[in-house]
From TrEMBL:
<protein>
    <submittedName>
        <fullName>Glycosyltransferase</fullName>
    </submittedName>
</protein>
<keyword id="KW-0808">Transferase</keyword>
<dbReference type="InterPro" id="IPR028098">
    <property type="entry name" value="Glyco_trans_4-like_N"/>
</dbReference>
<dbReference type="Pfam" id="PF13439">
    <property type="entry name" value="Glyco_transf_4"/>
</dbReference>
<dbReference type="InterPro" id="IPR001296">
    <property type="entry name" value="Glyco_trans_1"/>
</dbReference>
<feature type="domain" description="Glycosyltransferase subfamily 4-like N-terminal">
    <location>
        <begin position="24"/>
        <end position="113"/>
    </location>
</feature>
<dbReference type="GO" id="GO:0016757">
    <property type="term" value="F:glycosyltransferase activity"/>
</dbReference>
<dbReference type="Pfam" id="PF00534">
    <property type="entry name" value="Glycos_transf_1"/>
</dbReference>
<feature type="domain" description="Glycosyl transferase family 1">
    <location>
        <begin position="141"/>
        <end position="299"/>
    </location>
</feature>
<keyword id="KW-0328">Glycosyltransferase</keyword>
Length: 330
């Protein structure tokens, strides 16, 4: 097997049947090698954890006569994937794998009608990701507003910079941090973000920190954590991670973020704003900065909730049950 990572253009792959066919043809040799490896390893269950792995694993597991579990971490929707790709994936999810695991109810909703065998397993938080005592966190003396995640059009760094431009004059001592690096051939978007920072006259206010080896420490240094994704996220892991640190969160609505942001009793764990609504995003950040006591109460409640709702032990229990059930069906 070839462990190298290759960047692909998912939009280009879905533009035409010919493009999809070429992409599929290129994977055929790998499918055969994977099938042979599976026969040699003789696992009870094959578990694929990305869309590409799902598509490659489906024929490989079938050739090896091993039951397959798809773990879907992406919304299978036209606003998230090329339309033809989304339609094919929805059909395959119902007919191919023995079981489908989804990372949120929002992801499940994009697979309707759902396969007969499916399970919701939220991406769990490891104990070390949860602050022991968020009240002991050293809150910055001056406002520090940050966005954590890879630099990508799906993460909303452009919207974050535009919101920073609206907030900069009102909060003259505030600084803004874009924490993360561009991946998957998205350097052009990172260049656009840097150019926008300069255009808005924010070069001394907005810092692009690059890759963060310790995201938890980066979040602990923030007054507000912003999730600005313009397209609904399948889950919104950074929202849960920020809550686990006891940091006030402002997030764009839609997708899995809605499930994290509002408790089952309707209590708000963070402030939600419409995606792509820069004035609303700026206003929500201002709400947190102007009312720190209310923000701290909300953050403390969220910190307590996410430990129960998104514990890695619960994720492990659900996946173990899926594997046991699937193995028995072999």
């Amino acid at each position: 097997l070839d462990p190298r990572i290759a960047a692909t253009d998912r939009a280009a792959a879905g533009r035409s049947a010919a493009g999809a066919a070429r992409s599929a043809a290129g994977t055929l040799p790998f499918v055969g090698r994977l099938a042979r490896l599976l026969r040699a390893l003789d696992p009870d269950v094959v578990h694929s954890t990305s869309l590409k792995a799902d598509l490659i694993g489906l024929p490989a597991a079938a050739l090896a006569c091993r039951p397959l579990v798809w773990h879907v971490h992406d919304r299978i929707a036209d606003d998230y994937l090329p339309g033809p790709v989304a339609r094919v994936l929805r059909v395959l999810a119902r007919r191919g794998p023995r079981h489908v695991v989804v990372n949120s109810r929002a992801t499940a909703a994009t697979l309707l009608p759902l396969p007969r065998g499916w399970t919701l397993a939220y991406p769990g938080l490891a104990p070390e990701q949860v602050a022991v005592d968020p009240a002991a966190r050293a809150v910055p003396a001056e406002p520090v507003i940050g966005l954590v995640g890879r630099i990508s059009p799906t993460k909303g760094q452009v919207e974050f910079v535009e919101a920073a431009a609206l907030l900069a004059e009102r909060y003259p001592t505030a600084t803004f941090r874009i924490i993360g690096e561009a991946l998957f051939a998205e350097q052009a978007y990172a260049d656009r973000v840097r150019a926008l920072v300069a255009e808005r006259g924010l070069s001394d206010r907005v810092e692009l920190t690059g890759f963060a080896a310790d995201p938890a420490a980066a979040m602990d240094a923030l007054s507000v954590l912003v999730h600005a994704s313009p397209t609904p996220e399948p889950f919104g892991q950074v929202v849960a991670e920020g809550m686990a640190r006891g940091v006030p969160v402002v997030a764009t609505s839609g997708g899995g973020a809605d499930e994290i942001a509002v408790a089952e009793d309707g209590t708000a764990r963070c402030l939600l704003v419409p995606p792509r609504d820069v004035p609303a995003l700026a206003a929500a950040v201002a709400e947190v900065l102007d009312h720190p006591e209310a923000a701290a109460e909300r953050a403390a409640r969220a910190w307590k909730d996410v430990q129960q709702d998104y514990a890695i032990a619960a994720t492990a229990d659900r996946l173990t049950q899926v594997w046991r059930t699937t193995a028995r069906s072999r």
